[in-house]
């Protein structure tokens, strides 16, 4: 039975990914600040805390013996005009998105490199590619995480580990409020695909990157209904 670690599996895209992998026979361990009862092992961890992530991965390895895949989905979002973002907000975004990716990679990669096999998928955002209004700190942190992903991908590909990212656009998750402009009829109808994505569609792409024999390395695959092309 393959073993996957999914961060942020308590809701939204992370929960959909965890549920799909478990349905397909994976043992799924969650590192999340929210309950993730659909997983086999749930650890209450903030990915911004490196020592806590390291301890969590050690416990997962003690339980299952190995980690075949990691999906780094835990995130943080808030809207603030660019010139009003304070230092604390900047640092929180960077700690969660860049730090979280780095901490998980640091913890899981040694075992993957030793076995010369493994897959890592980071959940990015269309904002990392096209920017956005009132969320410059979020977009910047996601863009920095993409650069980190590509750099890690280059370093570990010779060891048999493939690292990629999926960048969702507007998606039907709890992070998208019911009154969001991205749910408004005029916006949705203007999308090339004519609708926003579902969490299940994002999960299917992640599954393919983990399970299929795709030689994809250091790439960013978009599920964004055509908002950024």
TrEMBL record:
InterPro entries listed in its UniProt record: NAD(P)-bd_dom_sf, Sc_DH/Rdtase_CS, SDR_fam
Keyword Oxidoreductase in record: yes
Keywords from the UniProt entry: Oxidoreductase
PANTHER family: 3-OXOACYL-[ACYL-CARRIER-PROTEIN] REDUCTASE, SHORT-CHAIN DEHYDROGENASES/REDUCTASES FAMILY MEMBER
Family: Belongs to the short-chain dehydrogenases/reductases (SDR) family.
Protein name: SDR family oxidoreductase
Organism the protein comes from: Mycolicibacterium komossense
High-level lineage: Bacteria, Bacillati, Actinomycetota, Actinomycetes, Mycobacteriales
């Amino acid at each position: 039975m393959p073993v996957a670690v999914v961060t942020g599996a308590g809701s939204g895209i992370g929960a959909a990914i965890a549920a799909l992998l478990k349905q397909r026979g994976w043992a799924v361990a969650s590192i999340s600040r929210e309950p993730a009862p659909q997983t086999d092992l749930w650890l209450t961890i903030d990915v911004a805390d490196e020592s806590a992530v390291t301890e969590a991965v050690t416990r997962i390895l003690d339980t299952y013996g190995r980690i075949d895949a990691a999906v780094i989905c835990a995130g943080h979002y808030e809207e603030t005009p660019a010139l009003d973002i304070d230092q604390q907000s900047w640092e929180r975004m960077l700690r969660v998105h860049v730090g979280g990716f780095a901490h998980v990679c640091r913890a899981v990669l040694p075992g993957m490199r030793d076995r010369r096999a493994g897959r890592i998928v980071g959940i990015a955002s269309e904002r990392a590619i096209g920017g956005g209004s009132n969320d410059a700190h979020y977009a910047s942190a996601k863009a920095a995480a993409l650069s980190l992903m590509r750099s890690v991908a280059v370093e570990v590909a010779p060891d048999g580990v493939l690292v990629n990212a999926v960048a969702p656009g507007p998606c039907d998750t709890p992070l998208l409020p019911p009154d969001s402009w991205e749910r408004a009829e005029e916006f949705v109808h203007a999308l090339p695909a004519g609708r926003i994505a579902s969490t299940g569609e994002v999960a299917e792409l992640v599954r393919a990157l983990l399970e299929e024999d795709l030689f994809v390395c250091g790439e960013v695959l978009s599920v964004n209904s055509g908002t950024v092309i």
